[in-house]
Design a protein that fits this description.
Strand content: 5-15%
Number of domains: 1
Order of helices and strands: EHHEHHEEHEHEHEHEHHEHH
CATH class: Alpha Beta
Largest sheet: 7 strands, parallel
Helix content: 25-40%
Number of helices: 12
Distance between the termini: 42 Å
Radius of gyration: 18 Å
Oligomer: single chain
Bound molecules: zinc ion
CATH topology: TIM Barrel
Number of strands: 9
Length: about 325
């Protein structure tokens, strides 16, 4: 079966910028060639800034990284489209933009609006440690006053708040703020903590909150989030899929592969090897419909409902 893919998280834009590479010609896991296998392909491209850069330099780097992507020959020719609303079915490969680690707002509240004007629609506010936004997964801290202001403005503009990388407290506060606006919360690239108990994965309580908010969850292929000792194979994905399905995530579970941002299981060399994930699931007697939902339909419905442009207040 030919599949479509809507992936919620990759770091490919950062790598392409850092290596001066393009969508058509690169040595990365996402390229024109590796994505040509899909009937339709939609990707959230996260702009992440190297943690060694200070917040201000990080903002400049994000602008430059975005500029690099917009001047990519595939984007200029129209073979790949950059989008802010859910594209039609059967259209060209499409890229949504996200920011991962919003510390680069650096205490400037107006940068939330600026980011929206720069077509950022997915906001992953935290990454590691404590920042001007708040506490990440490896801390006990919640959001700062500035962090709360950022999330509030971002969701009111129509951005999607993402709790991947957030601390337990920060995630709790993100749910509250987004909930007050009637907006969903997602975890773009996180697995189940009950299966692999690392701070980057989701507790059952968080899974329930995401589902009740109308959000989605992207399965992450990073070996250390699949299996605690990090010696993961593709089959280690199955217990996570099972756990999410047992908790009612059938229409919310998606892929957020963390491509070009992590160490992948040996079976996955590029995103094109997602066909192997489909084969694995078919062998385990998952239905073709469930595989299509997981690969594409769940994320597509989410984007059609929540990234339609109608919720935007300028
Ligand atoms: Zn990440």
């Amino acid at each position: 079966m030919k599949l479509s893919l809507f992936d919620l998280h990759c770091d490919t834009a950062c790598e392409m910028y850092g290596k001066h590479q393009s969508f058509a010609q690169n040595d990365l896991t996402i390229s024109s060639e590796s994505t040509a296998k899909f009937e339709q392909y939609i990707q959230v491209m996260a702009f992440w800034t190297d943690a060694r850069l200070d917040d201000e330099s990080g903002w400049e780097r994000m602008i430059a990284m975005r500029g690099h992507l917009l001047s990519d020959p595939s984007v200029i020719s129209g073979n790949v489209r950059t989008v802010t609303v859910c594209p039609p079915r059967q259209s060209h490969p499409a890229l949504f933009f996200g920011i991962e680690d919003a510390r680069i707002f650096a205490g400037h509240p107006e940068r939330v609006d600026e980011a929206f004007r720069l077509d950022i629609r997915i906001l992953t506010p935290l990454w590691a440690g404590e920042t001007c936004i708040g506490g990440s997964h490896n801390t006990q801290a919640g959001l700062t006053a500035f962090g709360k202001q950022v999330i509030d403005r971002a969701v009111s503009l129509g951005m999607i708040a993402d709790i991947s990388h957030a601390s337990v407290r920060s995630a709790e506060e993100i749910f509250e703020i987004a909930g007050a606006h009637g907006r969903p919360v997602i975890a773009s690239h996180s697995n189940a903590k009950a299966v692999c108990p690392v701070s980057r994965n989701l507790s059952d309580g968080q899974i329930a909150r995401i589902l009740s908010s109308g959000g989605v969850i992207g399965l992450n292929f990073y070996t250390k989030f699949l299996r605690e000792n990090g010696e993961a194979h593709l089959s280690d994905l199955i217990p996570h899929v099972e756990h999410f399905l047992e908790r009612g995530a059938e229409h919310a579970l998606c892929i957020g592969g963390d491509w070009d941002g992590c160490e992948l299981p040996p079976e996955l060399k590029t995103i094109g090897d997602m066909t192997r994930v489909a084969e694995l699931l078919l062998r385990r007697n998952y239905s073709e419909q469930l595989i299509r939902d997981l690969f594409f339909e769940n994320a597509y419905s989410f984007a059609a409902n929540h990234l339609s442009g109608n919720t935007t207040k300028h």
